[in-house]
Amino acid sequence: MRTKQAVKAAKPEIPKSTDELLELEAKYCSWGDTVHYVSKPNIFKESEGSFLYDRDGVEFLDLQMWYSAVNFGYRNKRLNAALKKQIDVLPQLACQYLHEEKIRLAAKIAQRNELSFEEKGRVHFNVGGSSALEDSMKLVRNHTGRSLVFAFMGGYHGRTLAASAITSSFRYREKFGHFGDRAMFIPFPYCFRCPYEKKKDFCDFYCLKQFERLFETEYHSVVNKKNNKCEFSAFYVEALQGTGGYIIPPQEYYAGLKEVLDRYGILFVDDEIQMGFFRTGKLWAIEHFNVTPDIIVFGKALTNGLNPISGIWAKEKFISPEVFPPGSTHSTFSSNPLGTAVGLEVMKLIEESDFATMVPKKGQYFISRLKKLQKKFPQIGDVDGLGLALRMEMCEKDGYTPSKELTDKIVDLGLSGKLTAGGKKRGLVLDVGGYYKNVFTLAPSFYITEEEIDLGVDLFEEALVKALKK
Ligand SMILES: Cc1ncc(COP(=O)(O)O)c(C=O)c1O
User: Which protein residue has the closest C-alpha to ligand 1 atom 7?
Assistant: First the structure.
């Protein structure tokens, strides 16, 4: 062991420049997260509204808003004030004791769902989307006594071990051993790239029929036809696939799916972690599809990204104290007062605002601008959106073959902060999703203005033109 003096003498200089900080990062930060998906990461220092600012003061228009965690804009005054106020009143409290904000937040969500779905239910909080998702799995297993689930190809539910087991990408599981309860992955109705090569509107829901066929005979491996018992307990659904590329299924799809599931007592679990809190123009994206989920999982925008609190809502029969008694699940920070205070303020903001009108209106304007751009560039294969969850697929010139290369170039150009559209040096922050990593998944702030949308489209066009010349 070193002496105190030796430790003091070895104290490193405080790095000043961005390059020095990046050197330090390269040495001491784990690269196991997603920072190094890009060739050269930037370091951000400030934020405001729809913008991030780096250490040199360069302004970056953010069209992803922390993967839809910051729906209400950076440094939202009202939400920040709620956090600051709580810090001075009751900032910490062990979760085994009650505080008012927790009760009121749970009640607001449950009452809202009661109105929308005509179902009584309860809310349980946790920290981070994946942990809430794991809680939902406990409810499912507890109710059905079974652990296997269906999930969608292209689905993303997080990266804890249990969430990885129902997340479609093998890459996330590859190095982490055996996943005995890995989901059975079913093709998602991704009509632009139909998994069955059918044409939208002429397919007669072939994908749904294929799913239904699994239950035709016991030899399709999911059901015992003698007693109608299914080996699978739930179907995990993202109403719009998030990481999968903001894919919007046909309107009637989920009602058809739910009908099949109901026949075999399979629960419908709706993962709203990315699409919840009005990203699509409704509190929950599933509300567009005329089905009532058994369980809803939420996180991200509940606190506008100010606190990692997350949660589940479940129908009473799955979560009542009789079936889910005290101690069934717990985490130190699960219903922390800073999180519940901001969450409550988010719910109040939602009640007092008209996001149901404002979000689709802005989304339509954004899409109209992107469609115009699509006419100029055949490389933009698909433009679609629901509310302010927008997608743009980057392709080869044929408008169909996915181009990850072009996508990556545009991301790097945006992050370089050297675009000039709008008359000054600027950057553009974009998120990439999709099965082929060629989809821009756009999730702008709900308060983005038309001028900022115009600026975003101009910056994007500039990056696209430069990327095509590279
Ligand atoms: C749909 C969906 N489910 C689950 C998760 C996991 O949430 P977290 O990263 O907070 O664990 C995410 C995160 O992106 C998500 O988009």
Answer: 129
CATH of domain 81-352: 3.40.640.10
Point out the ligand 1 atom lying closest to the alpha carbon of residue 131.
Answer: 11
Alpha-carbon dihedral sign for residues 113, 117, 122, 127: negative
Ligand 1 centroid from CA 67, angstroms: 9
**Cβ 311 vs Cβ 123: under 8 Å:** yes
What are the boundaries of each domain within the chain?
4-62+355-469, 81-352
* pLDDT class of 39 with cuts at 50, 70, 90: confident
Which of 300, 306, 331, 334 to mutate to test ligand 1, by most ligand atoms within 8 A of the CB atom?
300
For residue 4, pLDDT over 90 is answered with: no
Nearest ligand 1 atom to alpha carbon 128: 10
Q: How many A from CA of 462 to the centre of ligand 1?
A: 31
Q: Exposed/middle/buried for 142, CB within 10 Å: 0-12, 13-18, 19+?
A: middle
**pTM, to two decimals:** 0.96
Would you identify the CATH topology of the domain 4-62+355-469? Aspartate Aminotransferase, domain 1 (3.90.1150)
pLDDT given for residue 470 in this prediction: 82
Protein residues whose CB sits closer than 6 Å to any atom of ligand 1? 67, 128-130, 133, 156-158, 238, 242-243, 271, 273-274, 299
Q: Lowest-pLDDT range, 24-38, 292-306, 433-447?
A: 24-38
Per-residue pLDDT, 16: 81
Q: Which residue in 299, 301, 297, 275 sits closest to 288, CA to CA?
A: 275
Q: First vs last Cα of the chain: how many Å apart?
A: 53
